[in-house]
Amino acid sequence: MMGLADITLFLDDMDFLSRAVIMAIAVAVPLALLSPFLVLKGWALMGDAISHAVFPGVVLAYVFGIPYALGAFCAGMFSAVAIGFVKNNSRIRHDTAMGIVFAGMFGLGLVFYVKIRTAVHLDHILYGDMLGAMGEDIVLAAAIALGIATVIGLKWKDFLLHAFDPVQAVVAGLSVNALHYGLLALISLSIVGALQAVGFILPVAMLIAPGAIAFLLSRRFSTMLVVSLAVAVLCSVLGVYIATVLDSAPAPTIVLLLTIVFLLVFAFVSLRQHGYFLKGRT
């Protein structure tokens, strides 16, 4: 049996393109599994808020010499709790609270980033560097993907009930707060896993687009999960290869590919609803 060090060494020995493909899949899996829940709950802005809010945690992690994943996760969870606290203790709407918290956290991160930029180079964390992913980055992303996939596989029905009807979830004996903050924790973890690959700027697109595409194509939530996963993995792998051909960055190429797929699916569904794909119709 290969140990963790052996797996990391094996991944380091692979060529950069193979590592990028594996990293793309490891990032796509958790984002795709969470995407349908965010789409159903209308939490697109929450994904954006957390993806920006983890920035100061990463910068401080570099300063104090602790794993950046730990700093990012702590900052993400702090932001999620802060948003809930502001919403529950004021008349401010949820989206307003998200906007205030994530803008403030991202601004704080930029201040820290500028102050230490001469000593520590964080551009690859800010913008992502999928082609430069090393073995330890892939192992971390894969471990997060496995953990999130396990939780979703065991609890997706509970999360689904909470997304559709929190009141019914309470009646069914579920802990709404545990599901709420559990989902936020999973979102934070998925963004931590995506940092090396896509940075802070693009995770929200990869967190929303697969679920939106699956929502247009599916009527059952279980099918929606499968479609979201398939679309995210396929676009991620194709995006890496297209980026190498075009000499482009993989992360924005993947996001652009997801956007194109969404537009094509949207056009197809719209035309089908108007009867353009029925027999005898041109």
TrEMBL record:
List the subcellular locations: Cell membrane; Membrane
* Signal sequence extent: none
Q: How does it sit in the membrane?
A: Multi-pass membrane protein
SUPFAM superfamilies per UniProt: ABC transporter involved in vitamin B12 uptake, BtuC (SSF81345)
Residue intervals passing through the bilayer: 20-39, 59-86, 98-118, 138-157, 169-191, 197-217, 224-243, 249-271
Which Pfam families does the UniProt record give? ABC-3
GO CC terms for this protein? ATP-binding cassette (ABC) transporter complex
Which biological process terms from the Gene Ontology are attached to this UniProt entry? cellular response to iron ion; response to zinc ion; transmembrane transport
Keywords, in A-Z order:
Membrane, Transmembrane, Transmembrane helix, Transport
UniProt family annotation: Belongs to the ABC-3 integral membrane protein family.
The protein in question is named ABC-type Mn2+/Zn2+ transport system component
- According to its UniProt entry, this protein's organism is Candidatus Tokpelaia hoelldobleri
